[in-house]
Structures are given as C-alpha cells and as structure tokens.
Write a structure and sequence with these properties.
ATP-binding (chains A, B); Rossmann fold; propionate-CoA ligase activity (chains A, B); 5-stranded mixed β-sheet; 589 residues; medium-chain fatty acid-CoA ligase activity (chains A, B); 2-methylbutanoate-CoA ligase activity (chains A, B); 3 domains; homodimer; AMP-bd_C_sf (chains A, B)
C-alpha cells in the first residue's frame, strides 16, 4: 500500500495548478443548463397519457407507508426500552405531521432539529416531509452562535431540541432576539423513559405532548413535484457564508435505494445508528431502512462497548461509521468486545481504512465497505463493488482495492476525473490527477440562497467535488487530496493524503494530519500534526526520518507537532485550524 | 383455486355487477389528469438549479453502462457454449445500436423481435433503446396472421427473427405485401454455435454480420426525457384491436429495481431464463439482472431436465416461471432431477401455487414467491413480503399466505380494491370484492394508438386491472375472479372473444361461447360450447382443427360441447353456468 507513494510519476493535469485562484474567482462564462429536461417526446407515441395513475412524485414517504403495511408488526425502532413497530411509527409520524400543520407549518417551511440519534429525529425524517416542510438537521455539536447563524439563514419556524442541548438552543434564540429576529418555536425532546422535569416556558412544547395533539386521520401533504425540497443540510461552511445543501424528494428516494443496494441490505435488516442522522440524513439510511422494513437501533452516544453490546442484543446486520469509530472499535479493550452473532457489514466514508484497521476489523468479524461522497451527493456516491474473487487476495492487495473510491453507485449516473478548466477527462492511467466530478439524480438541487455557489459547483454540467483523484485503468477513482489541501513546495505538488498514509503506518502514531507551512523559499513545506498512541514515545526527527525512508524526500514533513487533532462533529479533521497554526509558526527557511 | 368460486361469503360491491356494460360504454365523464405533474415548486427555494449535473433521465441503459465497469470481467450471459462478460455485452450492444442507426432507425422507431430466449433478444433489450428506438418483443408462439397484424399496428421498421421462426415471419411479411404495406427488414438470428446455412434474400440481414458493421465508438442516443418510450408489449388483444402497452424509460428503471428487491437479489445473482423475455420484457429482469451485475443463463426451450442441469452447472440463484413450469418441475421424473447446490428462489405469477405444488417445490429445495401483475404494470406489481415468523406455520396456512397477491412492491405507489363506479375503496374485510386498481410509476404510459382505451384504463386516476379481489384486514389483496373472461393457459392469456370470433366464422356454427376448463397441467384450457345451425353436422375434432387453422394453437379449444347456450332474459350468455359445467368435466390432462 505504501510503496506506490514513492512513485514520482503522479502527474497533474496542467490546469490543476491554476485552479486555486480559479475556484475563488467569479464565474463568468457560466451557461445555465437549467432548461426543463423533459421535452414532451413521450407524446410522440399516440394514445399515451401522463396522469395520477402512472405518475407519482418519487418520495421516501412511500417507503414508510408501504412498510406500515408490509412489515406492520415488525420492530421499526429500538432505543433502550423504547420500541415501536412499523405501524406505530407510521401512526406517530402522521400525527406529528398533523401537529406541525396545527402549529402553522406551511408547505416549504423549514423545521430544524438539534439532537443526537434518538427516536424523535428518526420520526422527524418522515413527519416533516409529510407536513410538506423541509427538514434541517443541525449538527448536535454546534455552539449557540453557529446554531443562531443557521437558524437565521434557514429561517426555521420550529426547532426540535434534545434535552441535553436545550441551553445551546436557548443561547441561539437569545442571540436572534438581540438581533430583533423572530425566534423559532422550541419543541423539547425530553429524556426517554422518564417524565420530563425540564421547565418549559411559553414558547416551548414537549415532543410527546405535541405529537398527541395530531390526528392520525390527517391527510399528509405529499410533494407536488418530486423536485420539491425534502431537507436542508448545512456543510461545514464558514459562519459568514453558510452552505445549505438542498435535497429533493426525488434524489432522496433514489439515493435511499442506491444506498440500500450498496450496503447489500436484504429485506428486514437491523441497522445500528453509529453515524449521525444529522449527517446527510444519516447517509439517506433513515429512509433506506424504512424501504426495507428494517429495524433501527438508536444510540445517543457511540462507544465500543455500546456497539458490541447492541450488536449482540439486537442481532445487528449493518452499520455505518466515521473512520474514527473504526479506529475506536479496533483499539477497544478486549473486555468491551463481544463475539459477533454473524458477519456485520460496516460501511465507512471520509478516508480509506488503512490495512491494519481493515485486518483487525475482519478478525473481529466485520465486513468493511469503503464509500465516498459529499453532503452535495446525499452522502454515499461511490464505492468499489466487491468481486468474490478478490477475497483470496493478500491483505495488502485487498487494502489497495478497499482504499479506492471506486465507481458510482446505482443511483448516480457517473463519476469521473476531469480537468476543471478544460473539463476533459484525464487518462485512466492511475497517475494523472483530475478533479472528481459527479453527475446524476443524487446530486443536490443547489446551495440554499446562494445561486452563485450553485452555479460554480455545477459548472460545465458536472458537480465539482473539490477532491483530486486519479482514475485507474478499470475506471475506478482514487482520491489523492482535497484541492485546497494540496501542498505546493518548490513547484512540486504534495498530496497530503499520501504523507498521512505513511505516518499512519508508523507503529507509534495514533492519528496524523499534514498541512502546508508557508515558506519564504519553497512557498510551502509539509507540516505534520501527530497524536501518539498511549505509552509510545518518538521525537520529530525519528518521524521525519521514517517519512524520508518511505517517501520522496521533498514530500517528507519538515515540521512535526505533537497534539490532539481538532475534529468536526462528523469526525473530519479540521485542517483549516491546523493551517492557521502552521501559518502562525512562520517560515522555516 | 376453484373452490373459492363456490364460497357464498364473498360479497360484491353493488356496482361490480353493473360494470360489464360500463367498461364497454363510451367513457364520457373522463377528465384528463394529464397536466404536467411537475410544478416549479422546487424553484421556491432560492439558489437551486436543475441541470445536467443533477437531473439525468432515469433509464435502464445506465445499468449496463455501470456493470460494464463494475462487473467488467464477470460473466453476463451464458447460452450453451456462448459466453460473454459484461464489458463484452456492453460493447456488443453499443455496436448493435450503431448498426441499427446505420440501417436508418430513428428516434422513436419500433424494432420488433420474434424469438425465444437466445442471447440476441437479451442484447436487443439494451441495443434498441441505445439507438433511441422502441423494442417490441412479439410472442414467439404467434402465427403469421397475428404477427402481420402487430407489425402493421406497431409500424416496426425491422424485425429480428430466430431461425426457427423465419417461416412465420416471412408469412407475415407476405400478408403485408399483399396489403401493399411496406414490410420491415428481417434480421435473422441464426442458430448459435454453427455457421448459418439459411438462405438470405435481399431484404434480410444476419445478426452477427449486422452487429459487426456497428462502431463501438458510437455515441448512443439517450432518452431526451425519462418518459420516452422504451418498449411496446402487445397483450392478447383482438386482431381487430391490438393492445400495445407502452413502457417508459422511467418506469422500466423503477420496475427493474423494484423487481430486483422483490426477488431478494443481492449483488451478482445467477438468473435462469425460464420466463420468456418477450413477456413484459422478462418481467423487467432483462434490465434488473444487469443492474446487479448478475449472470443470465439463456434457454431456448424449458424442460425440467434443462432446468435442473442448468441450476447445477451454473449455480443458479434465481428464476421466474409461469405456473405450468412449476407444475413441470414438480411432476418431473426423478431421473431428470438433480440436487440443488443451494436454495433457489423462484417467483411465479399468473395463479397462486397450490399447496401440494408449494410443498413439493420446498422439498426439492426451492423458495417460492408468488407475484401478481399485468402487462400494464411492467409485469410484477404486487407480492406478499414474507415475514420470517411465517416459516414455522403449517403448510396449509403458508399456502393461504402464498396464495394472496399481497401488496405493492417498492416501485409501485399503491394497490387497492375499489368499486369501479364510485371509486371508493372496499372494506378490508377479506369478503367484499372490488376491482384491483393500481397507481404508480410502474404503470404503463398507455395503449399505443388507442387513447380511448388508455383513458378508460386510467379512469379516476387509477389503473383498472379488470381483476376482482378482496382486501384482507392487513391490506393484502387476494384475486377472486377476472372481470373479463380471460383464460390463462400455460401462462398465456387467451381472450375468449377472439376464439369465439373464429368459431362464429365457421359455416356450421350458430352460436358459441368459450370458457376456461380447469387443467392440472395448463391451469386452464379453452372449452367451447357450441350450438350448430340446423341441418349441419360437424364433430368436435373438425371444429378444433378449424380453430387451429385460424388461431395460434394454444388458443384453440381443447374441448367442444354441443348444446344450447344458457342466456339471461336480455339475451346475454350466462358464462358462469358454462364455467361450472366446464369445471365439472375435470382436468383434461
């Protein structure tokens, strides 16, 4: 896995270097492709009609309605001692939708949440669309300021808040009040399994009480068009310019099915919620599990013990995790581990599982699938469909195959690596880098209130991911770096992912991230931030030497800083913070 | 299956009885729901764009393109010693599409086939849509007259004909020539594995030669809209009014995925083609197997020995069969049977598997799923999702559950039993009958060149199946009778009116009526009740021969009974009395 990084033959298409400035420039030559893609050619055959009988807007709402019949008495959701069937979940969601409309929620209104993976947030994934509204699940680790910014930007009318996060939400509302902005109503999601003791003020409702005001006979508000928005997902943008990614009912329907296929989920899977539902609507598996009449095992907090306990107790078949959780599982104490009842399929996204993690996961009885995607692609967009013949390959070869981001899943039309200026595909030689571009029905509708950013993202009729990758001869893509993370040192491009992979292979290193440190002579030099495993001691010189032994010298870090890495709520390392720290160090030469 | 007709507890909603006249009346109060169902409400959120990056017409063509990469070197199709990989199948289909355009096939043109399940008909399921054209797979049991009628109606420009059916096709072309209609070109599908010795005339091409004229670099003609027609499937309409059911790319895409889900097909299944691909495009599994990168095992003729041999040789995982084939398997000689390598999932449609058949199939190692659908619903539309807890029920109870037509699959929005006049749902009491009505994206676009029939079929915004059923308390439907008097024999629909028309054309026959006679092997066989003109004398054999000379053989009566026909006061023949008489005769085979 490591040796190929020694290869100096990774070529960049010429215009990548010009791109840093390009992407931030105003986009002038943009041509709108925005014409309705549905000419009436279906009328060309005489005798045909398009009507309610044969044209129903695609929507994940249909999954719940069907499962309420097909899997009526099967368990839909478990959370501690809370347990519902699919017919109960359906009833609760309809009543909640009814209650929302009674509170004045109109078609297209935004309803926000601030909550970990408790039953309420699952139910809101159906109830809010059933009220014709748009679900905006805020990251539960945001502070009051960030929450206030996103409430203002989204114009949310209601926010559902977990009892542990009530003070954060109230802080956000205070900020809005100070700005003379009408704050949203708060609906408190109390601690399950005990009567609420939280004091509620006038503008605050309690979840179960609100739900009970709704009518099961309520006629839900179906989307008028499958292009209607179903959710609004804020990515980690800056506070001054939030990026609110809009999903449509159509895209959510198609990505849910594609994600179910990708996970190899048969009928009635049992899914353990270790990935936050606020993240790309749980990679669309909130809706996907309903499509297959599965059982959702909700978890407030993720811990290795909790994972093993829940797998054993509920016969979990599938889970999806951030790379940090893979790390947690693999490094968990033997006392926390339990034998698995059967092979458990785990998907992971964000970064490829390193060989030693993969091997350990397999030893524990997990099957690992590596996904790639962005908030803008409804979460999962690509993976490497696993060929049975590969099972017998040596670990190193399997790791290389797992490390690739692969091909579009069944719901996406195409993934490609292209020169972002000429828009030409790069050769499929495993060497030439291009920007990952994606096209298909599971690409976002756009950035809410930011047409310019939307136009930039869709330039040339492809979604521009901002990730750099090579394309292998079999068409599979492999990420090399974020466009903005790439380091240019002495005119050479350094893929930080490659340097990090070498760092991770060092036995003492628990986690690592590399950014560019400004340099008067070289432009930039690589700077590594490293956290060591407990009980290990190595110094910077040893780490630098290790990298020089395993990489072209110009790629080896010149600086090593030992500290905990800052991460986002979804487990992504916040490189912009590290870049600021590296910049503060000043030039090395 | 027969006994339930005797049950006295089945209630009919009052208006069912009025329906026979109703459905044949001109439909006056029809309101077109035909307005574009896509208001621009997606624009209500500022900043969104619909363009090539996020809006690609749904089409099964995408399945092949993806599998050509994801499953590149995996076997796509096997037929005797013929074997292709997915990348080869993709290449062959693109070349064939290219060759079709070189022959002058334009967007929207119809390309017909007359063939059993050989590789060519599989390839044409992709090649024809890739040329922008519409695939019309004719029943390979049709005679020259029927083929000529459908070629005239469909205006097919080319017909691909299996070498064994060449004379039927040439006969059809002669009929067209006599009517001064320009006949389609013939492309001969020769016997595989041997050089063709059939003499070709000027207007006839040979399949492989034609394919070789195509270019792999050809830019395929993608649908301009997902509502573009992809195929035209003739049901058993009368020769005077053929019913050509039009499928769209959108519906085909969605039904393919739903059918894959319904069959529980994981990645890379091996599918044995025992259901004709000419029947609803092989229940959309032609496209569905491509979606999952599976292997298609083609069979020219279906026999128990062939089924067992192929299962063992190719590790078949899934198959789909007409009820007669279930019968064949169960009654096959022990010498023809082979132990299965694993459980083989078999789906069957048309009529529910009787308990003894179900039991025997399970003993042999098959898992059976019972589907319901019509040509108008792209084949499979409903089934009973099987709950694991049911496995432990006694055979009789399981048979009852298997016998039900169940619920809509994942691609269909809703199945319901309704009063066809008031359009009200019947109570879910397992007793009150209503007409099965379906709604969703996997309902046909309409009947080609027959707007009136389309409007009638979609009256009230639901597709009217013409089948009568009850709805059980859990929402599952169960078919009780056919609204019309269709006979199902060996999986084929026989319209009694057509047979009666031929009978009436016999010089000795005064009046005639045809009903189904229950049959252990065929399900039903046509039974004719005939009253001769005074002074005429013919016997049953002569009448049967007359019908066989004027109809496809399977449509000809197997039984002829001479007697006066029972009529109502207003002169209508009472078919239910004749059905009882035919039932009393018992099985013919």
């Amino acid at each position: 896995m490591i040796n190929y990084f020694k290869s100096s033959c990774i070529r960049l298409v010429p215009s990548i270097n010009r791109l840093h400035s390009h992407v931030t420039q105003n986009f002038r030559e943009f041509s709108r492709f925005c014409g309705d893609q549905e000419p009436e050619s279906w009328k060309s055959m005489e005798g045909l009609i398009r009507c309610q009988a044969n044209n129903v807007p695609l929507s994940p709402i249909s999954f719940l309605e069907r499962s309420a019949m097909a899997y009526m008495n099967r368990t839909s959701l478990v959370y501690g001692s809370v347990k519902y069937t699919w017919s109960q979940t359906h009833e609760r969601c309809v009543k909640l939708a009814s209650a929302l409309t009674q509170l004045g929620i109109a078609r297209g209104d935004v309803v926000a949440t601030l909550s970990p993976n408790v039953p309420a947030i699952y139910e809101l994934h159906f109830a809010v669309p059933m009220a014709g509204a748009v679900l905006c699940t805020l990251n539960s680790r945001y502070d009051s300021t960030m929450v206030s910014v996103l409430l203002r930007h989204s114009e949310a009318k209601i926010i559902f808040v977990d009892y542990e996060l009530l003070e954060i939400a109230r802080g956000a509302l205070d900020i809005l009040a100070n700005e003379d902005i009408k704050p949203p109503m708060i609906v408190l999601i109390p601690k399950y399994d005990c009567s609420s003791s939280t004091s509620l003020n006038l503008n605050t409702y309690e979840y179960e009480n609100l739900l009970e005001t709704g009518q099961y006979g309520f006629e839900i508000r179906r989307p008028k068009s499958e292009w209607d928005p179903i959710s609004l997902n804020y990515t980690s943008g800056t506070t001054s310019r939030p990026k609110g990614v809009v999903y449509s009912h159509r895209g959510a329907y198609l990505n849910s099915l594609a994600t179910v296929f990708l996970h190899g989920m048969g009928s009635m899977p049992t899914f353990l919620w270790t990935v936050p539902m606020f993240h790309c609507n749980g990679w669309c598996l909130t809706w996907g599990v309903a499509a297959q009449g599965g059982t959702n095992i909700c978890l407030r907090k993720v811990s290795p013990k909790g994972i093993f306990d829940n797998i054993a107790r509920h016969n979990v078949t599938h889970m999806a995790v951030a790379p940090t959780v893979l790390n947690m599982i693999v490094h968990s104490s033997v006392g926390d581990q339990k034998p698995l009842p059967h092979k458990v399929e785990v998907s992971t996204g964000g970064s490829p599982p390193p060989p030693q993690i993969l091997q350990k996961m397999e030893e524990l009885g997990f099957g690992v699938t590596h996904l790639y995607g962005l908030t803008e692609t409804y979460g999962p967009g690509t993976y490497t469909p696993w060929i049975p013949e590969w099972d017998s390959l040596p670990l190193e070869d399997r790791s290389k195959l797992h490390a690739r981001q692969g091909l579009q899943h069944l719901g996406l039309e195409k993934v490609d690596c292209r020169d972002p200026v000429s828009m030409k595909s790069v050769p499929a030689d495993g060497k030439t880098m291009g920007e990952i571009m994606l096209r298909g029905n599971t690409v976002m509708s756009g950035y809410f209130k930011d047409l310019k950013a939307t136009e930039e993202a869709f330039k040339g009729g492809w979604f521009h991911s901002g990730d750099l990758a090579v394309k292998h001869p079999d068409g599979c893509i492999e990420v090399k770096d974020r466009l903005k993370d790439i380091i240019i040192s002495g005119g050479e491009n350094i893929c930080t992912v490659e340097v990090e992979t070498v760092l991770y292979s060092h036995p003492a290193i628990y986690e690592a991230a590399v950014v560019g440190r400004p340099d008067d002579h070289w432009g930039q030099t690589p700077c590594a931030f490293v956290k060591l495993k407990e009980g290990f001691h190595v110094d910077a010189q040893e780490i630098i030497k290790f990298c020089r032994d395993n990489l072209p010298h110009y790629m080896a870090p010149r600086t090593v800083i030992f500290e905990d890495l800052p991460r986002t709520a979804t487990g992504k390392i916040q490189k912009f913070i590290l870049r600021e720290k590296a910049a503060a160090l000043g030039s090395l030469t």
